[in-house]
């Protein structure tokens, strides 16, 4: 059974920072592509960041480049999203994704709410 659990969301003021965590069981974060997505009310799910399997290259959506950093800890079987200089438009539910490339199967967590407001 695959479990994907996000944590670390909350309320932060504009310009502040948060660090999201995604803990995975049942699949290896090093052997699968890992990603972060977000969805604001009334909007489609948006790509935020991703790390391909077995490499340390990271990719970011245009709206978060230079502010967000995704990392992976193979020993803890987890990925993280460090978010700096947060803006009100970053407000959304953030989801962690595990993508099994060879069978094209996706696993999602339940999401964690991030609210940026003064």
Task: Describe the protein's architecture and organization.
There is one protein chain. This protein is mainly β and 118 residues long. It is 0% helix and 52% strand. The protein contains no helices and eleven strands. The protein has strands at residues 3-7, 10-12, 18-25, 33-39, 46-51, 59-60, 68-73, 78-83, 92-100, 105-108, 112-116. Strands 2, 4, 5, 6, 9, 10 and 11 form a seven-stranded mixed sheet that branches. Strands 1-3-8-7 form a four-stranded antiparallel sheet, with no helix packed on it. A hairpin with a 7-residue loop joins strand 5 and strand 6 (59-60). The model has no long low-confidence stretch (mean pLDDT 96).
Give me the count of strands.
11
| Gyration radius over CA | 14 Å
**Secondary-structure content class:** mainly beta
The chain-level mean pLDDT equals 96
Through-space gap between termini: 40 Å
Q: Unreliable runs, pLDDT <50, ≥5 residues? A: none
* SSE topology string: EEEEEEEEEEE
Overall geometric form: globular
Determine the fraction of residues in helical runs and give it as a percent range: under 10%
Q: How many helical stretches?
A: 0
Largest sheet entry: 7 strands, mixed
* Strand residue percentage: over 45%
